[in-house]
Amino acid sequence: MPDPDPANTPEQEIAIEQRFVDRVYDRVDVLRGEAEGNRDSGYAHLAATVPGAQFERDVFVYRAARRIADLDSQHEGMVFGRLDFDDGKVRHIGRLGVRDEEYRTLLIDWRAPAAAPFYRATAVDRQDVARRRVIRSFGRTVEEISDDLLNDDAAERLPVVGDGALMAALGRKRTGRMRDIVATIQAEQDAAIRAPGRGATIITGGPGTGKTVVALHRAAYLLYQDRSRYEAAGILVVGPSAVFMKYIGRVLPSLGEETAALYSMGELYAGVEATRQDRPEVAAVKGGTVMLPILRRLVRQTPPGAPGELRIVYRGDVFRLDAPELAAVRARVFEKETRPNLAKTEAGRALLIALWRKIKPVIPDAEPAKFSRDVGSRGEFLTFLDHWWPDLDPADVLGWAGDARRLASAAEGHLKHDAVQAVAASLREADFSIPDVALLDELRLLLGVKPQPRGRDRIRSWDGIQEVSTTQDRYYDRPERQARDAFYEDYAHVIVDEAQDLSPMQWRVLGRRGRAAGWTVVGDEAQSSWPRPRESADARRRAVPRGRVHEFHLTKNYRNSKEVFEYAAAWARPRLREIDLPEAVRETGVPVEEKKVAADALLPELAGAVAEALDAVEGTVGIIAPYARHAELAALVHDDRVTLVGPLESKGLEWDAVIAVDLKAVAASHGPGVAYVVLTRATQRLTRIDLT
Known about the structure:
692 residues, alpha/beta, Rossmann fold, six-stranded parallel β-sheet, 27 helices, globular, ATP-binding, nucleotide-binding, P-loop_NTPase
């Protein structure tokens, strides 16, 4: 690396960094070739017959395959930072660590402690850093550099180029997918990312402070710090909606991490991918702890279609158990085992006891043991038992509540008539809603989970000797989430985004997934859509294991321009208590535009606003409108850059331009917190269209 020359032009400095970047990529090409050679050497020993040699060979192949995957996933923008220290030493920061031919450090992984000054050094606390440089590349070509001079005395020996990497990154167009921010992590964000994995880490902050992307980079950091723990037991990342999970889905792979499990709250029940939103008043009932006693009563109800009479012929006499007697038997079974799917044997025993009490007075010489063997083994008795006490599926039991009379019986003393009718109507829909997923998971436990036999692993065998030669293949071709489905409960760490929106029932679901996990909880109470925050807070305290708590508060809004955020803040202040208002760090000079139109003029007015926004920005345009208007507005989504979403799906997302439709209706339906969310999604331009 040549000595720095303060007289260098930006082009000369870019050329210096290009030579270093070329050197890194050349070294990575060598490492990739070595890994490919190791992998091929392992495959050459396919015929190994000694179990120990088979295992060693497979580990060899697996590690080589992982190395190739790591190098490939980090190829784009591999080198993004440089630190010049007061003593003249230089460190380059990148997406992964690279050593040269003599095993000296060439590139430092961004998660390593040695890289921390890149994110934490400030003019007040320089940490011996004289200059911080951000390097922006496309492919292997350095396109731009941007410097922060932290030591004014170093200006005589260090050239300074650019206007600041953060501002440049914030001004770039949005693409519809969240990017990683490894090159522009700020000091307060870095502190949260590097917090200990055990205990609970609470990250709060207003709109645009980077809470979500910090949580994702935290997952990558934890995997780097203790890979054996977090890869073996897993990291769960939970977000509010499928739209949101798609938006963030490429961040961790871009950081070289593919093993974290990403689920929306509508996917945390195997086989269900719920996207439907209930009306707010219905969601408030389904998500509340009031549903717990209702579900407990529901699972005790007689299944639809169950026979109402048991008729048995014994030694020439006919004996019957009628409906009230069968109901009494059912009640006695639940006194001994509350989980129906684990109580079938007890149900059969209880039926035989009830029959015996009728038979004994009529046939005094009958023997109980012989009677039980005789009647209990009969086909008609076993058939009756299967129909009267069937194995119950949570989806079927929740469907029972679509019958308003059944639900009213289970909800007596807990729900009023109008609430019963509204919830029952929702449960008669053809698909499940997002709040239904928490009810399904609760029913899964109330019904009783039968132990499932483990499926055979895909391990090959020759002459009865199993080996592990398919490990590398399984790493690549296994189905998504095969190892950890939606019911997996042994995660080492759980990351919850938009936590302020979770209902108590949803917190119960997450508590089951992370019984012994560390937690990262991310949110902003001012943006909450849940109407009873105290109830939700109590549920969160029960879900998150007690232990050490690390709290971080983010104070800078990097998403919105000052014009957009000051407008949103002015709207929110009188409507939201204890609102957290971060400081917007940039201006665009573009004020928020307000329009008022008649309802029948909405479509042409909105079409014009969309066309104007597409001309004004290079990136994406979001239309956020009440759900009731989506059908009429769908025709306006004729460009790949335009997205139409509801207020709840807009959480966590951002667009270059946003058109907020009928904000008053949004606030009336979902609360002022959600309307505040809608006003803070735009990075450059916000247009508000209200109906007169």
